[in-house]
Amino acid sequence: MKKDQFLTRRGMLIAGAAALGAAGTAGALTLGAGDEPARTAASAAGPQARPVLSPSAYRLQPLTGYGPPQRTAARTAVRHEPFLRVSGRGRTMVLTFDDGPDPRYTPHILDTLAEHDVRAMFFVCGEQADWNRDLLARMADEGHVVGNHTWSHPLLTRLSRSRIHSELQRTSKVIEDAYGERPLWFRAPYGAWNRSVFQIEAELGMEPMAWTVDTEDWTTPGTRVIVDHVEDGAAPGVVVLSHDAGGDRSQSVRALRRYLPHLLDSGYHLTVPRRRYA
Ligand SMILES: [Zn+2]
Question: CDD domains per the record (predicted)?
């Protein structure tokens, strides 16, 4: 896609940004040092419109430095909704990749991110991470954030509390061993959270993060369609969901190579959230 077409299309997207949350925006993470805590919520009422989470308990800022590893994740507050977007100064977006790592695709995604000096989030599954520890170490070296996406990608809402705990705990342990610190973020497979999941992730020190824009790359719709999903959905605060494993992800790899330079040329700041307690 030509850049000018992209910019033109974005003009309409800004006006429609509030509608992005209509699919169930719970709350927005605040990004940007010095920004006032912001809340962005779906004012557009829909069947799934939900109340806004108070962001007052903590604020987030972009990851701009590399602090000492955090060995122990403190228990966090129990949420009732996952975060679906971020908010902050300017055109901030977050790229996320789920279900990996996969040695066939993840290295290419890391190469593209490195080429453009961009940090992203990887929500990994324990059973993938366990035999790809080198890739988690590379993510740590290159400043990416690794989150927990369960051990075996089950539908958690059908599991007992003890099995949910096991899925999350085992994965956090592998991440700690390979990445160097325990994960601070959790994403439920299929976006399926329930009260037990919120409670257990909080016990393990993780905050729930969903997404704003689904690239639907898991349907392998073609590289162009994935690129269009990202560029059509681009707006300040958007969290993009893609996959680096779970099937043939060569389209996802190629799509990133196309949309990432477009987003950067359009003035987007692609970053990762950092939790900072006030
Ligand atoms: Zn997944």
Answer: CE4_NodB_like_6s_7s
CA of 74 to the centre of ligand 1 (A): 25
For the chain, which domains are there?
Answer: 3-12+80-277 (3.20.20.370)
| C-alpha of residue 153 to centroid of ligand 1, in Å | 6
Enclosing H/E stretch for 93: strand 92-98
Q: What is the mean pLDDT of the chain?
A: 81
Active-site residue 165, yes or no?
Answer: no
* Residue 98 annotated as catalytic: yes
Q: Give the pairing type, strands 273-277 and 58-62.
A: antiparallel
Question: Do residues 118 and 244 make contact, with C-beta atoms less than 8 angstroms apart?
Answer: no
User: Cα of 33 to ligand 1 centre, how many Å?
Assistant: 30
Q: Which of 90, 30, 61, 75 is nearest to 206 (CA)?
A: 75
Q: Which residue has the tokens 């719970």?
A: 26
Residue range 44-50: mean pLDDT, rounded: 36
- Residue 73 near residue 206, CB atoms below 8 Å: yes
* Beta bridge partners of residue 85, listed in sequence order: 28, 238
Which residue is catalytic, options 243, 244, 262, 269? 243
